[in-house]
């Protein structure tokens, strides 16, 4: 399995501008973040390391997938000098729901994809799954955007965080980065 590791410490491509605990406990502060595909041991200097794997789609339907593919940008655009790493854990109540009810909360009620699409192509994104790896978070979500799109990204977050889906979020840390 190809893992992506987010290591906070003294080195790394991204400068950590702030770490904010949205729900539940925060993460330790650090200067920089390294995003790496290589398996590496936790160095003594690192403040924390989170790992996740890209995976198959759980909720996206064909028409939504087509709409996403038509507009979503790749990661690593040179102008996208801002990033957010937002690790998220959902409640046991969420995981106890059957698949069809999770999908209904996610899209029919909360419009996660429809809302998210309004912010593409400004925001590039990647979802990593951590729950089955025994990690502290269920998901690691990663976003890249240009400084001029920062307020649009805040608006997107505010809309998602007031949706029904977020009633099922028990831990969320919002880490902002720049390069
Ligand atoms: C930029 C616009 C966004 C778009 C287009 C988007 C789209 C999507 C899509 C299509 C999925 C479902 C993947 C699947 O079928 O398994 C998903 C899942 C997810 N997204 Fe977003 N998203 C956006 C922004 C965000 C933001 C800002 C956050 C966090 C603050 C977020 C957090 C998540 C999480 C945690 C999941 C996993 C949900 C679960 O499996 O329970 N997304 N997103």
Q: Can you give a write-up of this model?
A:
This protein has five helices and eight strands; from the N terminus they run E-E-E-E-H-E-H-H-H-E-E-H-E. With 179 residues, it is α+β, with helices and mostly antiparallel strands. It has a single domain, classed as Alpha-Beta Plaits (2-Layer Sandwich). An eight-stranded antiparallel beta sheet has the order 4-1-3-2-8-5-7-6. The longest helix is centred in the C-terminal third of the chain and has 12 residues, at 150-161. The model has no long low-confidence stretch (mean pLDDT 96). The chain binds protoporphyrin IX containing FE (HEM).
Detail the topology: elements first, then pairings.
Blueprint: E1 3-9, E2 14-23, E3 32-36, E4 48-53, H1 62-71, E5 82-90, H2 92-96, H3 99-109, H4 112-117, E6 124-129, E7 139-145, H5 150-161, E8 169-178
Antiparallel strand pairs: 1-3, 1-4, 2-3, 2-8, 5-7, 5-8, 6-7
This protein binds protoporphyrin IX containing FE.
The site of protoporphyrin IX containing FE has 21 residues, from strand 5, helix 4, strand 6, strand 7 and helix 5.
Would you tell me which CATH topology applies?
A: Alpha-Beta Plaits
As a percent range, the share of strand residues is 25-35%
Helix/strand/pairing class, anyone? alpha+beta
Count of DSSP H/I helices: 5
Helix fraction, binned, reads 10-25%
Mean pLDDT: 96
Tell me the major beta sheet: 8 strands, antiparallel
What are its keywords?
179 residues; alpha+beta; Alpha-Beta Plaits; 8-stranded antiparallel sheet; 34% strand; globular; binds protoporphyrin IX containing FE
């Amino acid at each position: 399995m190809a893992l992506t590791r987010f290591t906070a410490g003294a080195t790394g491509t991204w400068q950590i501008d702030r770490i904010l605990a949205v729900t539940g406990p925060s993460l330790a502060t650090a200067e920089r973040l390294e995003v790496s595909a290589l398996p590496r041991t936790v160095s003594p200097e690192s403040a924390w390391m989170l790992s996740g794997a890209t995976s198959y789609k759980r909720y996206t339907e064909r028409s939504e997938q087509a709409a996403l593919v038509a507009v979503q940008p790749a990661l690593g655009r040179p102008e996208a000098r801002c990033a957010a790493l937002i690790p998220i854990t959902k409640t046991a109540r969420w995981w106890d729901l059957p698949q069809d009810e999770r999908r209904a909360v996610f899209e029919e009620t909360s419009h996660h994809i429809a809302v998210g699409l309004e912010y593409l192509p400004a925001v590039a994104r990647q979802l990593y799954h951590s729950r089955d790896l025994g990690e502290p978070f269920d998901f690691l979500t990663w976003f890249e955007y240009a400084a001029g799109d920062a307020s649009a990204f805040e608006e997107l977050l505010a809309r998602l965080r007031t949706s029904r889906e977020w009633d099922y979020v028990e831990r969320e840390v919002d880490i902002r980065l720049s390069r």
